[in-house]
Structures are given as structure tokens and as C-alpha cells.
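Fold this: HAD superfamily hydrolase protein
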Amino acid sequence: MASNTTPLWLFDLDNTLHNASHAIFPAINANMNRIIQRVLEKDGLPSDEAAVNHMRRHYWKLYGATLLGLVRHHGVGVDEFLHEAHLFDDLTGMVRAERGIGRWLARLPGQKILLTNAPRRYSRELVRHLGLHRHFSHHIAIESMHVHRQLRPKPSRLMLRKLLARHKATPRRCILVEDTVDNLKTARELGVRTAWVTQYLRGSQALLGHIGGQRVLSRRPAFVDVKVRSVRQLPRRLAALGAVR
């Protein structure tokens, strides 16, 4: 548990600590499309590319994650979906990331938690491959994001409140580091400080994200405290985040 004076960092994984848009997100999108196509075919609905894209985007806009719509309306199992969506022939060969990220994480004062909407098996393998696992005191993957027995991934306010309560952390002590603006917006509404990582946004925009899409902005919105191209720049922005040693 962090002290009352040190920051509690909440780090996203994909397109924050590595370039998921290079190869991983395209593979996830293809896997997701196959799942959605099967769902549409089972329900006797059109299952062409336009129909698949419409369902993915519709559920993402409605629930914040395509998975939630498939679970609630089509009986898709959470574990089944996560497993199939994150099947890769060679995950480590698909990874692209900056060198030395661990050194920059080590320069950030306070406790660090990995908070990702990705599944546990995938995120653990990836973080270990990147050599970043030692920097995080906790690893919270999507399987752990339940509130009142309901799956509540980011940008769920309920999930974030539960996380802060569990760690006895006030919102102002916490800093969410993310590429996804909707997650940052929700966190800021709760009083959490926010850092927006932007260097992989171009790839995200082209792919519409692995959960269906996100609003893509270029200027720093009011709910973002600090906009950085890379996590490497965070140590220089500690004052702006209220996280000075």
C-alpha cells in the first residue's frame, strides 16, 4: 500500500507501454471479427463485413467494450471470447516497443499498478517479455474488473472507485496513464489525475481500436492534465501531475 503522500500510478498496457497498433491490434481485430461473424450467423443475421463492423462499434459505444454487448445479448462467454480474441502465432515476434521504458518507470515516485482491459494470460506474457513486470506492485487484468458480480472494465466508474477504495487511495493521489481518451475522461471526473500517451494514436485511429474504436483527438482536452508522446517524458512532467518527489 502506498503512503498518503506518494502517487499511485495506474498504467494502461496496449498502445501506452508498447505499440499494439503495429501487429497485435490487427490480429485481435481479425480474431474479434470472426467471433462476431459467428454470432451473427447463429442469430440468422447478415454477417458481412459491414454488419460485423456495425455490431462491434455499436456495442463499444453502448457499453465501452464490444465484449460486454456480446456477453449480455448473445450469450458469449467472457473467457471464451478473451481466449480466442488473443490467439497469436507468435506474440513476442509481434511486439514493438521503445527501449529503456523500465528505466523511466523506475524514475516515477510511488506505487505502480498495471490496469488493462486485456486478459491476464496475454498481458502477463507481454509485460514479462518487455521486462516491466518488476515495476508493478499489482497486475489488474479484465478478468479482475468485477463489481457486484458484473464485469466492469475501463472506463467503468464503479470499477475505478472499487480499486481506489481497495488501495485506500484518494483520487487526487492517483494518476491514470492511458492512450484512450474516454478512459481518461471518466477517471478525471472522479478526481484522478490523467496523463495521455499519444505516440500510437495514428495506428489506433486507422484500426478503430481493438474494442471497437475511440474518440481520436489531437489537442489536449480539458480532462487531461498532461499530454506526452511517450511514457519516457513522464519524469519531466511530475510537477504538472502533482507528483513531485
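The chain is about 40% helix and 10% strand. Residues 8-19+98-237 form a domain with the Rossmann fold fold (CATH 3.40.50.1000).
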